[in-house]
Write a structure and sequence with these properties.
The chain is mainly alpha-helical and about 180 residues long. Helices cover about 65% and strands about 0% of the residues. The longest helix has 19 residues. It is globular.
């Protein structure tokens, strides 16, 4: 009986956790159009969604800039900046995109390090209820290393002082663990 109860609770927890992954990470009409390949419509929708502060829209605009899709001019510098901002805001799609981007064609060892950090953060800092990636809770040493790289990136990449400042600030935040004991 206990084994069945434990298995049932584990299955229920997994189901709630898995279904909750999409709670905060939703597909907007602009992202749906982007996924469907309707780039012109996606670009227009994503711009208006981003102006309204809709989560996820920055990721879509970053991808469009990186790849030169729809009405966006191909601009990796702008696209990378938009994706870094979206990743720091917790969008798991942006985190995954950056991990692949830095790893696919690294300009120097710092890109490989960023690829590894974004990949690890995407796995270790993913909130199973909301689906958001909580980069602010990553290890302070990792945050400091990423801040240093964004402040002084590989030659050919633009510095990201805002990202460096955010990551550096998070690395100095006090950490605490709350343990509930009934």
């Amino acid at each position: 009986m206990r084994r069945h109860l434990a298995a049932g609770l584990a299955a229920a927890t997994l189901a709630v956790g898995a279904s909750g992954c999409s709670t905060a990470v939703k597909t907007t009409p602009g992202l749906a159009a982007l996924e469907a390949g309707d780039d012109a419509r996606a670009y227009t929708l994503l711009q208006s969604e981003n102006a309204a502060g809709t989560p996820g829209s920055a990721y879509g605009l970053g991808v469009m800039a990186m790849e030169g899709r729809g009405g966006a001019t191909k601009d990796e510098v702008t696209g990378e900046g938009i994706l870094v901002d979206a990743a720091l805001a917790g969008d798991p799609r942006a985190v995954s995109y950056l991990a692949k981007y830095y790893g696919a064609a690294p300009l120097c060892a710092k890109d490989k390090e960023l690829a590894r950090h974004w990949r690890d953060i995407g796995i270790l800092q993913r909130n199973l209820i909301s689906g958001v990636v909580e980069t602010n809770l990553a290890l302070p040493g990792v945050q400091r290393m990423m801040a240093e790289i964004y402040a002084q990136p590989c030659e050919g990449r633009s510095p990201r002082p805002a990202a460096a400042a955010i990551l550096s600030g998070w690395s100095r935040m006090p950490r605490s663990v709350t343990v509930y004991v009934p």
